[in-house]
Structure formats: structure tokens, C-alpha cells
Write a structure and sequence with these properties.
Helix content of chain A: 40-55%
Low-confidence stretches of chain A: none
Strand order of the largest sheet of chain A: 2-1-3-4-5
Largest sheet of chain B: 5 strands, parallel
Number of strands of chain A: 5
CATH topology of chain A: Rossmann fold
CATH superfamily of chain A: Response regulator
Shape of chain B: globular
Number of domains of chain B: 1
Order of helices and strands of chain B: EHEHEHEHEH
Distance between the termini of chain A: 25 Å
Structural class of chain A: alpha/beta
Strand order of the largest sheet of chain B: 2-1-3-4-5
Helix content of chain B: 40-55%
Low-confidence stretches of chain B: none
Strand content of chain A: 15-25%
Order of helices and strands of chain A: HEHEHEHEHEH
Structural class of chain B: alpha/beta
Oligomer: heterodimer
Largest sheet of chain A: 5 strands, parallel
Strand content of chain B: 15-25%
Distance between the termini of chain B: 10 Å
CATH class of chain B: Alpha Beta
Mean pLDDT of chain B: 94
Radius of gyration of chain B: 13 Å
């Protein structure tokens, strides 16, 4: 991953179906933060690159695609990279779901509502300022 | 010409590679923006880049944003995408490119556009 070293930018993973949503999120993060964004269609694909790229943040859909669900994925991600900051996106605005995901190791839970991209970027920037100032 | 084609649809990538190789070009193909960045980082000078937008690992928008910091950043870029209103979308986000082609497109149309860059 030479270009990451060259640009000295921290990395961020978006895990979920590559879609208009992930593209818009990708563009907003490119514009408003210093992260290099990687997008994966499934948790399995992301896990293969996790240790080589060592992202600072993982944004994970609670149903990231075929294979593992969000809860299984977050457990696997945290076991490989415990220090990564993980944000779970869910269409289910249910406290029990959120608590289960937090217990599994998620650092944050965001309900996928209108203007969710803005909320995600704000959270990323707050993580960024806490970690890199 | 040296042409870098960045496309995750393997059938379309194969078709474009075949077409432009037959026309006497040297083709460098990448399945996503990360593979493409690694190719340009090896200081392989390209005369033209054909780039998809929605790709896994490193998307076309991230590729173009990072490539804009590269010494070869003036290399012309043709964007190919199924993104609705994609041209306006990219311009709104200040992504630098030279030509936008909406998918699906005929390969003869792409050949015609590429020919315009071969001067």
C-alpha cells in the first residue's frame, strides 16, 4: 500500500454494498477529512486487508452484504485490530440492537435516517480531532 | 498511447483492453483505484486514463482526488459511469476529469472519444 505511506494519510474503511450511499459518504469524507477511504462489498473482503492497511476507523453497515452480519463482523474486526474506532450503521432504530452491537465491540451506533452522512462525517471529524491533534 | 483502464466489471475491462490493444495502444488495466494508484506510483507515464467511479476498495473519486496530487496529474481522464447525473455530481464535488461517458455505451463511441485524445 505504497500510496498510503506516500500521502501519509490515515485510512478509513466503509464496509457494505458499494452503492450510491457509499459513494456519497466516500466523497464527503474525501472533502472534509484527511482520511483515505477504502470501500468493501463484504466484511470478509475488509477483514483480508484490515491488518495490512490498519485503518483508524471502520464504518460498517449492520447488514454489510453476503456472509457475516454486522455483529459477527465487529467481533472479528475488533479481535484483529482492537484499537480501531468502529461505527455501525443500522436501519433499525432499536435500543436493544444498538446495545447488542456496542457490547460486541462497536464504538458508536448511528441510525440510518435522513442526513445520516452529515452525522457520520461529524463523528469521524470528532474521532480525528481526538486522535490526531 | 499508454492507456490506463480502471474498471471493476471484468467483461467490460476485457472488451476495452482488447479494443484499444488492437488499435495499437499499450494497455494497463486495474480492477480498482488502489491497483491504479500503485501503477502510477511506479512512475509509469500514461497518455490517457479511463476510469469507472463506483468500484470496491478504492473508488474512482478517491483515485482521482489522490491522482490530482501526482506529478502526472495533467493526464487526461475519461470517466465511464452508470451514475445518474454523474457528470454534474462529479463537477459539484470538484473532481477533475476531461470527459464523461454514461454507461451503457457503445465501444465504437468510446473509441471515437479516445481518438480525440490521441494527438
Amino acid at each position: 500500500m505504497k500510496f498510503c505511506n506516500k500521502y501519509k494519510k490515515p485510512s478509513l474503511f466503509i464496509v457494505g454494498n458499494v452503492s450510491m450511499f457509499s459513494l456519497q459518504l466516500n466523497m464527503e469524507i474525501n472533502e472534509k477529512s484527511n482520511y483515505t477511504v477504502y470501500v468493501y462489498n463484504s466484511a470478509e473482503d475488509a477483514l483480508q486487508e484490515l491488518q495490512s492497511i490498519q485503518p483508524k476507523i471502520v464504518i460498517l453497515d449492520s447488514f454489510p452484504g453476503k456472509g457475516m452480519n454486522g455483529q459477527q463482523a465487529i467481533i472479528a474486526i475488533k479481535s484483529l485490530l482492537p484499537e480501531v474506532y468502529s461505527i455501525i450503521l443500522s436501519s433499525n432504530n432499536d435500543a436493544d440492537t444498538a446495545i447488542d452491537l456496542i457490547k460486541s465491540g462497536a464504538d458508536s451506533f448511528i441510525y440510518k435516517k435522513e442526513n445520516v452522512i452529515e452525522e457520520i462525517v461529524d463523528e469521524i471529524l470528532s474521532v480525528n480531532s481526538n486522535q490526531f491533534v | 498511447m499508454n492507456i490506463l483502464i480502471i474498471e471493476d466489471d471484468l467483461m467490460l475491462l476485457k472488451l476495452m483492453t482488447y479494443t484499444f490493444t488492437e488499435d495499437g495502444n499499450k494497455i494497463f488495466s486495474a480492477n480498482n483505484g488502489l491497483e491504479a494508484l500503485e501503477m502510477v506510483e511506479d512512475n509509469q507515464k500514461m497518455d490517457l486514463i479511463i476510469c469507472d467511479i463506483m468500484m470496491p476498495v478504492v473508488s474512482g473519486v478517491t483515485f482521482m482526488s489522490l491522482f490530482n496530487q501526482h506529478p502526472f496529474k495533467n493526464t487526461p481522464i475519461i470517466v465511464i459511469s452508470a451514475l445518474k447525473d454523474g457528470e454534474e455530481f462529479l463537477k459539484k464535488h470538484n473532481i477533475v476529469f476531461n470527459h464523461f461517458i454514461e454507461k451503457p455505451f457503445g465501444i465504437s463511441y468510446l473509441k471515437h472519444i479516445v481518438k480525440g485524445f490521441n494527438k
